Amino acid sequence: MRYASLAIILLLFTQFLLSAVFFPHVPSRLATHWNAQGVVDGSMGKLGGLLFLPVLSGVVALLLLWLPSSDPLLKKKPSSITAQVHLFVIALLGFFTVIHVQVLLWNIGIHIPFSRTLPVVTGLLCIVLGHTFRLVERNWFFGVRTPWTLSSDEVWYETNRKAGRWFQVAGAAMIFGVFARRQAFLVIVTPLLVVSAAATIYSYLAYKKNKCRKRSG
C-alpha cells in the first residue's frame, strides 16, 4: 500500500510539474476539448487550462480513496478493498497524465490525434478496471452495482467476476480501435455500452438463479 500511495503522489506531482514546465511555452488560451472528429471545439484560459486536469486528478483520487471509509457495507473493514481501489486510482491517474501531456503538446504545436491515443489508454484503463471487478468485495460505490448484486454476496461475486472478464475483453478491443481512426469514438463507447448492459442483465439472471437455488435447496 505504501508503494501505491507513492505512485499516486508521483503521478499527481508529475502533472503539476508538467504544467509548470509548459507555462512559458503555451499560448494565453489553451485548446482543451476536441469533438469526435478531432477538431478543437473548446478552450480555456492559460492558468485554468494548465491546472484543470491536475486539479481534477487530485479531487477524483481523494474522493475514490475516501469512499471506502464511508461505505456502510465496509464500515467494519474498509481496508478490504484498498488494494483494488489503489490500483484503479493509479490507472486512472495514468490515464489523466497521458491526456494532460497530449493537451500540453497540442498547445505548443505538436498535434498528435486523440484517435491514436484514446483507444489505447481507455482500453488499458478498462483492462485494469475489469481486473479489480473480479476481486472487489460487495460495496456501494465500486464494481457492478445493481439492486441484485447489492442484495447478495453470491450474486455480487458471480456478476463481477463475469463482468470483469468482459471489461477486459472490451478493453482489448478498444486498443485495436487505434487502427480505426475515424471511428475511434464508436470503438470506445460501443464496447462500454454493450458490456454495461450485459452486466446489468446478467446480475438479474444470476439473482433469479440464486433465488431458485435457495428455494429448491
**SSE pattern, N- to C-terminal:** HEEHHHHH
Mean pLDDT: 90
**Number of DSSP strand runs:** 2
The biggest beta sheet reads: 2 strands, antiparallel
Tally of separate helices: 6
The termini sit apart by: 42 Å
Strand content: 5-15%
Outline of this structure?
The chain has helices spanning 2-22, 46-70, 82-106, 114-133, 153-175, 184-216; strands at residues 29-34, 40-45.
Describe the structure.
- By secondary structure, this protein is mainly alpha-helical.
- The chain folds into 2 domains: 111 residues, no CATH class; 105 residues, no CATH class.
- Helices cover 68% and strands 6% of the residues.
- A two-stranded antiparallel sheet has the order 1-2.
- Strand 1 and strand 2 form a beta hairpin.
- Helix 4 packs parallel to helix 6 and helix 5 runs antiparallel to helix 6.
- It is globular.
- The chain starts with a helix and ends with a helix.
Annotate the secondary structure layout.
Elements (H helix, E strand, L loop, with lengths): L1 H21 L6 E6 L5 E6 H25 L11 H25 L7 H20 L19 H23 L8 H33 L1
Antiparallel strand pairs: 1-2
Helix pairs in contact: 1-2, 1-3, 2-3, 3-4, 4-5, 4-6, 5-6
Entry keywords:
single chain; mainly alpha; 2 domains; two-stranded antiparallel ribbon; 6 helices
